[in-house]
Amino acid sequence: MRPNVIILTSGLTGSSVLAGLLARAGYWTGEKTHQKKDYDTHENQELIELNLRIFQEIDYRGDYLVQFSPEAIRRAAGLRNPSCEDACRAFIRKCSAHEPWLWKDPRLWMTVHFWKSVMDLKECKFIVLERNYRQMWISTMLRRQIVTYRRSRRYEQDIKDSAVQFLKDNGLDYLSLRYEDLIVHPSETIGSLNNFLGANLTIDDLKQVYHKPLYKTPVSSFREHVKAFLIYAKNYSSRLDIAAEGR
Q1: Residue 37: which residues within 8 A CB-CB, separation 6 or more?
Q2: What percentage of the chain carries pLDDT values higher than 90?
Q3: Residue 158, domain member (yes or no)
Q4: How many structural domains is the chain composed of?
Q5: Domain-embedded: residue 9
Q6: Which contacts (CB < 8 Å, 24+ apart) does range 187-192 have?
Q7: Is 124 exposed, middle or buried (0-12, 13-18, 19+ CB in 10 A)?
Q8: Which of 22, 136, 148, 245 is 20–30 Å from 203 (CA)?
Q9: Is residue 247 over pLDDT 50?
């Protein structure tokens, strides 16, 4: 039996492409997955709901998509609530009936510190996914989440560093992956995934979930660049950088 997989990443890193690719290798993503306007995120809806419950239990009111909060991580790691724990264990049992399963939710960089207390993470393998910083910033602006490029880059680096440190501290097996490498160097990157997971994915599988040209760096269009900078300039005074970090 192949290991279960948990993707640790922020939002907007191309994780839906990676999750869609892994789903083609037989990884179960849930009875119902979160749907955005034009694509399936492959995020298990029950996982999302439980992660939101964890947010409530630790009284997290920040914006996890742009704010890195060591305090929220500390609260998640220390959370002990029998009702919440029972609900999470019931969800794990459901996932176990569909092994191998895949978890992908950008909230996991925080909540995985709680999940550690209710499951054996050594039964899973982890993928730490990142993306080009400038492309991340442009995508963030287009979604009206106004932060400086410097803060956006720091947020991404903090999440990666935190995830890697968590995995190392707990002796968990992981693969670091860059989204652009999957697109520009698909053969090598898919080969690394296959070796890591014992899968048999091919470039044809990637073409089924990524509908733009391969072997070319995925970059925003000139129009998207201009639009992002205009949005940033117009909303600079109300940027999220000046708000407090997640409580």
Answers
A1: none
A2: 82
A3: yes
A4: 1
A5: yes
A6: 190/21
A7: buried
A8: 136
A9: no
Instruction: Give CA separation, 87 vs 50, 91, 122, 164, in Å.
Output: 8, 6, 21, 27
Residue 29 lies in a domain: yes
DSSP state of 171: T
Residue 133 has pLDDT above 80, yes or no: yes
CB distance 47 to 91 below 8 Å:
yes
Range of the domain at 91: 4-242
Q: Which residues on adjacent β-strands are paired with residue 200?
A: none
Q: In the structure encoding, which two tokens stand for residue 59, read together? A: 């009284």
Predicted confidence (pLDDT) per residue in 65-121, tens digit: 889 999 999 999 999 999 999 999 999 999 999 999 999 999 999 999 999 999 999
Instruction: Enumerate the H helices of the chain as residue ranges.
Output: 15-23, 45-57, 70-78, 82-96, 108-115, 133-142, 149-169, 179-184, 186-197, 203-209, 222-234
Q: Is 16 exposed, middle or buried (0-12, 13-18, 19+ CB in 10 A)?
A: buried
Per-chain mean pLDDT for the chain: 93
**What spatial distance separates the first Cα and last Cα of the chain, rounded to whole Å?**
40
**Residue range 79-88, pLDDT digits in tens:** 999 999 999 9
